[in-house]
Design a protein that fits this description.
Blueprint: E1 2-12, E2 18-29, E3 37-41, E4 46-47, E5 53-55, E6 60-65, E7 69-70, E8 76-77, E9 83-91, E10 99-105, E11 108-115, E12 124-132, E13 139-145, E14 150-151, E15 162-170
Antiparallel strand pairs: 1-2, 3-6, 3-15, 4-14, 5-13, 7-8, 9-12, 9-15, 10-11, 10-13
Length: 171
Protein backbone atom coordinates (compact mmCIF):
# COMPACT_ATOMS: atom_id res chain seq x y z
CA UNK A 1 0.00 0.00 0.00
CA UNK A 2 0.94 3.64 -0.05
CA UNK A 3 2.38 5.13 3.14
CA UNK A 4 2.49 8.88 3.55
CA UNK A 5 4.90 10.79 5.75
CA UNK A 6 3.93 14.30 6.84
CA UNK A 7 6.88 16.59 7.54
CA UNK A 8 6.01 19.80 9.39
CA UNK A 9 6.55 23.27 7.93
CA UNK A 10 7.74 25.61 10.67
CA UNK A 11 7.54 29.39 10.96
CA UNK A 12 9.22 31.74 13.40
CA UNK A 13 7.66 34.98 14.58
CA UNK A 14 9.55 38.18 15.42
CA UNK A 15 9.98 37.05 19.05
CA UNK A 16 11.71 33.86 17.86
CA UNK A 17 8.81 31.57 18.77
CA UNK A 18 8.39 28.54 16.51
CA UNK A 19 5.05 27.14 15.38
CA UNK A 20 3.82 24.62 12.80
CA UNK A 21 2.42 26.36 9.72
CA UNK A 22 1.40 23.19 7.89
CA UNK A 23 2.91 20.01 6.48
CA UNK A 24 4.54 18.67 3.36
CA UNK A 25 3.41 15.15 2.60
CA UNK A 26 5.49 12.60 0.75
CA UNK A 27 4.17 9.22 -0.33
CA UNK A 28 5.91 5.93 -0.97
CA UNK A 29 4.67 2.49 -1.90
CA UNK A 30 5.56 0.09 0.89
CA UNK A 31 5.31 -3.70 0.79
CA UNK A 32 4.57 -4.37 4.47
CA UNK A 33 5.44 -8.06 4.19
CA UNK A 34 8.85 -7.46 2.63
CA UNK A 35 9.82 -3.83 3.10
CA UNK A 36 10.86 -1.64 5.98
CA UNK A 37 9.65 1.85 6.87
CA UNK A 38 9.72 4.00 9.98
CA UNK A 39 9.06 7.44 11.37
CA UNK A 40 10.81 8.36 14.63
CA UNK A 41 10.64 11.58 16.62
CA UNK A 42 12.18 13.22 19.66
CA UNK A 43 9.69 13.29 22.56
CA UNK A 44 11.32 16.14 24.51
CA UNK A 45 14.31 18.49 24.33
CA UNK A 46 17.66 16.99 23.36
CA UNK A 47 20.75 18.83 24.59
CA UNK A 48 23.76 18.84 22.28
CA UNK A 49 27.32 19.55 23.30
CA UNK A 50 29.02 22.79 22.28
CA UNK A 51 30.85 22.33 18.94
CA UNK A 52 30.60 18.54 19.15
CA UNK A 53 28.56 16.00 17.17
CA UNK A 54 25.94 14.08 19.18
CA UNK A 55 23.60 11.28 18.13
CA UNK A 56 19.96 12.34 18.53
CA UNK A 57 18.07 9.94 20.77
CA UNK A 58 14.89 9.56 18.74
CA UNK A 59 12.73 7.83 21.33
CA UNK A 60 9.21 7.82 19.88
CA UNK A 61 8.03 5.76 16.89
CA UNK A 62 5.10 7.01 14.84
CA UNK A 63 5.25 3.76 12.86
CA UNK A 64 7.79 0.99 12.35
CA UNK A 65 7.02 -1.56 9.62
CA UNK A 66 9.41 -4.46 10.00
CA UNK A 67 10.25 -3.51 13.60
CA UNK A 68 13.65 -2.22 12.51
CA UNK A 69 13.94 1.12 14.36
CA UNK A 70 15.47 0.85 17.84
CA UNK A 71 14.05 3.76 19.85
CA UNK A 72 15.21 2.47 23.25
CA UNK A 73 18.89 1.49 22.92
CA UNK A 74 20.88 2.45 19.83
CA UNK A 75 18.33 4.94 18.45
CA UNK A 76 18.95 3.74 14.90
CA UNK A 77 17.32 2.20 11.84
CA UNK A 78 18.74 -1.17 10.77
CA UNK A 79 16.79 -2.35 7.71
CA UNK A 80 16.37 -6.09 7.18
CA UNK A 81 15.60 -5.80 3.46
CA UNK A 82 18.38 -4.91 1.01
CA UNK A 83 17.65 -2.03 -1.37
CA UNK A 84 17.46 1.72 -1.85
CA UNK A 85 15.85 3.73 0.97
CA UNK A 86 14.49 7.28 1.02
CA UNK A 87 15.35 9.21 4.21
CA UNK A 88 13.96 12.56 5.36
CA UNK A 89 15.00 14.64 8.39
CA UNK A 90 13.78 17.80 10.07
CA UNK A 91 14.86 19.59 13.23
CA UNK A 92 14.86 22.90 15.05
CA UNK A 93 16.97 24.18 17.95
CA UNK A 94 15.35 26.20 20.71
CA UNK A 95 17.09 29.42 19.61
CA UNK A 96 18.86 30.61 16.45
CA UNK A 97 22.50 29.69 16.00
CA UNK A 98 24.78 27.86 13.59
CA UNK A 99 23.87 24.18 13.65
CA UNK A 100 23.82 21.05 11.46
CA UNK A 101 21.48 18.07 11.30
CA UNK A 102 22.89 14.97 9.57
CA UNK A 103 21.95 11.47 8.55
CA UNK A 104 24.73 8.98 9.24
CA UNK A 105 25.18 5.56 7.62
CA UNK A 106 27.44 3.18 9.54
CA UNK A 107 29.04 6.10 11.40
CA UNK A 108 29.66 8.39 8.39
CA UNK A 109 27.68 11.43 7.17
CA UNK A 110 25.60 10.84 4.02
CA UNK A 111 23.33 13.93 4.16
CA UNK A 112 23.35 17.32 5.92
CA UNK A 113 21.03 20.26 6.49
CA UNK A 114 22.45 23.36 8.19
CA UNK A 115 21.36 26.80 9.33
CA UNK A 116 23.47 29.89 9.95
CA UNK A 117 23.18 32.18 12.97
CA UNK A 118 21.59 35.05 11.07
CA UNK A 119 18.75 32.92 9.70
CA UNK A 120 15.29 34.26 10.58
CA UNK A 121 13.84 30.76 10.22
CA UNK A 122 16.22 28.26 11.77
CA UNK A 123 14.50 25.02 10.77
CA UNK A 124 16.66 22.55 8.87
CA UNK A 125 15.21 19.81 6.70
CA UNK A 126 16.70 17.52 4.12
CA UNK A 127 16.76 14.06 2.71
CA UNK A 128 18.69 11.54 0.71
CA UNK A 129 18.54 8.10 -0.82
CA UNK A 130 20.97 5.39 0.21
CA UNK A 131 21.56 1.69 -0.35
CA UNK A 132 21.29 -0.67 2.64
CA UNK A 133 22.54 -4.26 2.53
CA UNK A 134 19.67 -5.58 4.66
CA UNK A 135 21.84 -6.96 7.45
CA UNK A 136 24.61 -4.80 8.90
CA UNK A 137 23.97 -1.28 7.56
CA UNK A 138 22.38 1.20 9.96
CA UNK A 139 21.23 4.83 9.86
CA UNK A 140 21.10 7.49 12.60
CA UNK A 141 20.30 11.17 13.08
CA UNK A 142 23.14 13.37 14.41
CA UNK A 143 23.26 16.99 15.56
CA UNK A 144 26.05 19.58 15.71
CA UNK A 145 25.52 22.79 17.66
CA UNK A 146 28.07 25.62 17.72
CA UNK A 147 26.55 26.89 20.98
CA UNK A 148 25.23 23.70 22.59
CA UNK A 149 21.57 24.61 22.03
CA UNK A 150 18.82 22.04 22.59
CA UNK A 151 16.77 20.45 19.81
CA UNK A 152 13.02 20.92 20.25
CA UNK A 153 10.92 17.80 20.88
CA UNK A 154 7.30 16.74 20.38
CA UNK A 155 6.35 18.20 23.77
CA UNK A 156 6.97 21.71 22.37
CA UNK A 157 6.20 21.34 18.63
CA UNK A 158 4.88 17.98 17.37
CA UNK A 159 7.22 16.54 14.74
CA UNK A 160 9.86 19.21 15.38
CA UNK A 161 12.74 16.73 15.24
CA UNK A 162 12.14 13.69 13.07
CA UNK A 163 13.79 11.05 10.90
CA UNK A 164 11.79 8.94 8.45
CA UNK A 165 12.84 6.21 6.06
CA UNK A 166 11.27 3.74 3.67
CA UNK A 167 12.30 1.16 1.08
CA UNK A 168 11.77 2.51 -2.44
CA UNK A 169 13.53 -0.21 -4.47
CA UNK A 170 14.40 -3.69 -3.18
CA UNK A 171 17.02 -6.13 -4.41
Amino acid sequence: GVQTCALPIFTTNAAGQVSVAGTNTIAAVINKTRGCAFSATLSTYFTGLTSTWAKVHLDTKEYDYGKVFDNMGNHRFTPTTAGIYQFNMVGIPETPEYWILSIYKNGAIIAEASVGTAAANYVAAGGTQAYANGSTDYFELWYYSAGGKRLVGDDVVPGATKLTGCLIAGD
